[in-house]
Input
Amino acid sequence: MKRKRQNDGSSVIAQDTKIKKNSQSFTAHQFKKQLRSENNGEVLQALTLFRTSVGEFEIESDPEKDIIQSYLKISGECAEIIQLLDGNKRPPKELQLICEVLEKIFLSVIDNHPIYHSSLVRVAHQICQKHIKQVERAIFAGIHNNVAMAGFRLLTSIVMLGISSARNVMSCFSFDHPTLMKLVNRCNLENDEDVRVCYVRFMLSLLVVGDSQLIEDLLSHKGFIKGTFKAVKSDRLSLIQVLLPTLRDKIVMNSTIKKTQKLRLFNEYTLQQLANLYVWDGKNDIDTDKEKDEEERTSSGRDIVRELIHNFLCDVTCSHRHGINFFDKTYGTSGMNQNSVLFKFLQTLRTATKDSLVEELVVKVLKTCPDILQKYLTSSGYSFFPRASETWVVNMKFLAKIYKAQPDVPPCLIQSDKVAVQKLVAMAMVTTKPVVISKSTLIQGIKNANLMVCYQSLDVLLLFLEKSLKVIQFVQQASPQFNKKEFLDAFTGDIYKELPEVTLLFGIWHRTMNMLSGKQVPDIKEDSLQNPDFSDLLSILLKVLRLYQVCVPSAMEQTTFDFGHLLHDTYNLQEKELCTDATLQISALRFLETLPRGQIKWFKELKTDKSKQSTVTLLLNLLTSSTDSKLKDASKVLLHKIFRETGIFKSSDQEITIWLQHLLPKESGSNIKIEIQFLQKILTKVVRNPHPLMDHIAMATVSALQEVDGGGEDCLNDGDGKVLTTQIKDILELDDVPITQVDSFAATLPRPWTHPRPWTHLQPYPTRQLRSSRQLILHLQRSYYHHLVHSFLLLFRSGLHLLNCSKPQLPPI
Output
């Protein structure tokens, strides 16, 4: 019975030690001599010692041990090694050694010995023309992975010699061999190198060294490059960091490669395989920090891979110049699908609402190719019908991001091509109105009992109106080739058909205010969404109403709602500290500013929680009491609009500015509320019956003109004084609110000018009447009307400055 030999590894160690010891004294002459031996054992030993000596030289870098240089000096074209490839089939082990030795020589010449480059090019040419079958036998050696790896590495080193060697490899290698596609998926992540890695490196070497013609020839071999994408999800990080940039630089950004060739490589199937790198699960072989555990290294590597593949896919799918995109001038309205590959690829990205990078990729593709926008949304599988679920909210936010990324002005409006107006409107609506959000869908969402569903529906409606406004403003300001009026009529008509009734929006306002006042309980269920902030809901509602008025003014004409309630409601929220931000009030003011004349009864008193007050009174209170500069400015703008629409200040807007400027508190002790009440009553009386004031102004103007024509006589008659006194008393009698006394300000009254000036119709009284009014003001300085007298003195002084073009310094009394 034979004894079994113990496999304790001692024999292997002894053999390695013997080889290492022999390699130290191994020379190039010995190597050349042993290769000529007819004994296969000596040949294998020589090849093994040569490989070991090269490895030692790479570690020590001792020139005296550079066996490759020594060998090339005595055998420049490696005749002894090439002779081994002649004749019969070589055993796999011997083929592996021959390939490895040749690879070492080629790489050493490329890196360290360029003087032998031409000789090695001839050697490579000889291998490709005469012995390529032996190399292919090594590559397609079945289960011998090490042999296949050695063959790929040899071909890679030959390609790296230059473009001529690369063309030789391209012309003789069997790219259509049936076994080749099996090798690309042969992986072994436990080792630093496997067959797949060698395959990919060989493919990348052809791309790096090759010119445009060679790359086109390489693309013509179906499956050679595409085959690398199938298992890319599990590739090492070091390989991906080389693969993706090389593909980008040599193929995607290569302008000589036709778009159809790129489409054959990057079809919907291969793009989906590359997109799997967003969930990469390979090995991080770059980060060798021992303090990190495996999970941390994998996580850091995944972030790098995700960024690489995201940038790569954006270059491939989002560029008309270098990518696989085709521009459709009809925006998909013709019925033809010119970007079918991208459309099918987007359908495979099922994590667009869960992965931020995938979402960004989808948004960019749809921005570049709006012709597939509507088709994608209707077939993507995402539900946009309103329902109280987190998934629906995420889908709506995704939809909003898609349309926000679309250009504000559709490029079809800028094109020089002549297109029918109705077709142009349809093309503009592609990037303006989400096709999956119909009018009925908006109504269902706005009427939903859950406020979050209502809020998201309003957000999409706001986006639709904002995009529509941009289009309208562009057409109004530009000089397009189409009929501007016809386009705007058709476009606004289509917008109006898609908008819910404005009464529905006011219903949301009432419901929200009832919830804030406690009259109605919000819909909060266990499976329901969390309600949004009430101020955010009201703010977006006001923005929607404002855009309704701007885009489709006719929509507001059908409602009987008193818009003044909007401002009163926001003011009450501020008073009750339910809304501390002034943004809501500013939104309300800007909306009221867009309403046409007569739409609001500004001077009508409305019931509030505390008292009755008109909208004008409320605005004056905001102007005088607010500390927010934006709110003050918005109040002032709206008050200007109100006063102009009364018709009293037709002559000059500067009068309005003077009134509002002197209404602002100048002293801490001034009673602004009394002045506001007085001004509100005066304006109310004048607005309801403006004729008496107009008559007074006309009489004063005629009197002033007569005074100028009379040479500026300085006479005071009792009649004029009585008229002035009667007019001021009539105004003061309108105010039945008791006013506290203040100190005398009669000294601030300016002396009249000694020379007559041509008074305009802006001044109600001539100079000589102002002199008599001075006597009246001195008489009233101790009365309880003194506070109003002070305010009117400031107003009169500003009025005189306004009328005097040179603005002289007024002398003190």
